[in-house]
Write a structure and sequence with these properties.
Elements (H helix, E strand, L loop, with lengths): L2 H5 L8 E5 L6 H12 L2 E4 L1 H13 L7 H9 L3 E5 L4 E5 L2 E2 L7 H10 L3 H15 L4 E5 L2 H5 L5 E6 L2 H15 L7 H17 L12 E4 L5 H22 L7
The structure holds 2'-deoxycytidine-5'-monophosphate (DC).
Length: about 250
């Protein structure tokens, strides 16, 4: 059975594909592609941390003040709506999709995500969103914490310099020369990596059963093909075994 014939295969509606990895590794692009190819919903969990970070910044709450952040979380409603291409993020009903990608929110998201109470809240939302299966969920702790029994786990990585330069090129393509230098992008990225990998609660790391995919020396097409092959192989195995595992 070819990869594409699996896209309409009923089993594909039920699997969970977890994609974890550091910033700039290409998770969103790969997740989007896999979602389209295998007819899955694409859920981008980083957007939820970003939306909450935006609310904390607006409320002027110090990002080190875990108690006030926790109280803020208790009165916050975050919704992720998967669309054809990207996710729409609603913060207390307001569409903040276009407001959460700037450097300030990016940095703040990494800071609020160290707090266990914030993580527990968002993890439980994510578990509810993916409970039915049929999703590609992308983040830092999907294969380790959110869905430790996900049928497919991919840990996407690349050297920091390569990730930084890809990010820089993305920004540069959007408009006039970016005010920031490539070296600064790489430095920011390393700082974020450091925090995401070393936090006490759910640090970024590959699940023991994740397939490692290092894109340092691969083109986008090659990474897409490799990721697709990983999912296809897993679907074939599940088909052979006669069913899918459980979605929790
Ligand atoms: O994937 P992203 O760059 O949009 O994520 C923003 C921040 O949110 C990132 O620095 C770490 C945090 N995050 C997390 O801790 N766990 C996730 N599942 C997703 C993101």
């Amino acid at each position: 059975m070819s990869a594409s014939s699996f896209s309409s295969f009923p089993l594909a509606r039920k699997i969970i594909v977890a994609i974890d990895g550091p910033a700039g590794a290409g998770k969103s692009t790969i997740a989007r592609h896999l979602a389209r190819h295998f007819n899955l919903l694409n859920l981008e969990t980083g957007a939820m941390y970003r939306a909450f970070a935006l609310k904390a910044l607006r409320a002027d709450i110090p990002l080190q003040d875990s108690q006030r952040l926790e109280a803020l979380a208790a009165e916050t409603v975050i919704r992720l709506e998967p669309g054809e291409e990207d996710n729409r993020v609603l913060l207390d009903g307001e569409d903040v999709t276009g407001l959460i990608r700037n450097q300030m929110v990016t940095d703040a998201a990494s800071q609020v995500s160290v707090w266990p109470a914030i993580r527990a809240w968002l993890v439980s939302l994510q578990q509810r969103m993916g409970a039915e299966g049929g999703v590609v969920m992308e983040g830092r702790d999907i294969g380790t914490v959110v869905f430790p029994h996900a049928e497919v786990k991919i840990f996407l990585d690349a050297a920091p310099e390569v990730r930084g330069l890809r990010r820089y090129d993305q920004v540069a393509q959007l408009g006039p020369a970016p005010a920031i230098q490539p070296e600064e992008v790489i430095r920011d990225l390393r700082a974020r990596d450091e925090r995401d990998r070393n936090r006490a609660d759910s640090p970024l790391k590959p699940a023991s059963d994740a397939v490692l995919l290092d894109s340092t020396h691969l083109t986008l097409d090659e990474v897409v093909a490799a990721a697709e092959a990983i999912v296809t192989a897993k679907l074939a195995q599940l088909h052979h075994d006669g069913g899918v595992g459980h979605a929790s």
